[in-house]
Amino acid sequence: MALSNYEYDRQWKNILPIGFHFVPTDEELNMYLKLKGSNGYILPGIFTDLDIYQYEPHELSGFVEEHWNGRMYFFTLAKKKFGNGNKLERNLHSGKGYWKSTQARKDIVKNNNIIGTKTPLAYIKSSPNNSKGKKTSWLMSEYRFPSNSPLLIKEVCKLFI
């Protein structure tokens, strides 16, 4: 399986002066999502295209460049749980766990226009002894366009290690 639509490449880091790091704001991550959606150019190795819902969080670090301060960035497809609803399916395909929102979705605003949303999530590991599962220390922020999107939604996920 290919790790990404891009060749995995760390060369982009060599372009940056020493001390510079990839630490995008919420608005900037939304701009990358827009670039991705319009087939714009993004330097190889910064983001990884991957169905993150196929893997437990600890498995994801083998697929992606770990950025400054323990962040990993993915483009992934999110599927709506119900065709006409706003809830997303965030269960792992294996049934080993799921991503649960920890706070309400927040609008990302630029020039008084909503350009996207951000949802903070925590990974819950399934447990046979507990129907709700066990909360882990894995955290993720999910960025996507406003809810008037089609059934399959491209999103940016920022995973914290």
Automatic annotation (TrEMBL):
GO terms for biological process: regulation of DNA-templated transcription. Keywords: DNA-binding, Nucleus, Transcription, Transcription regulation. Coiled coil: none annotated. SUPFAM superfamilies: NAC domain. InterPro entries: NAC-dom (IPR003441), NAC_dom_sf (IPR036093). Pfam families: NAM. PROSITE patterns: NAC. Residues 16-161 form the NAC domain. GO terms for molecular function: DNA binding. The keyword Oxidoreductase does not apply. This is NAC domain protein. The lineage of its organism: Eukaryota, Viridiplantae, Streptophyta, Embryophyta, Tracheophyta.
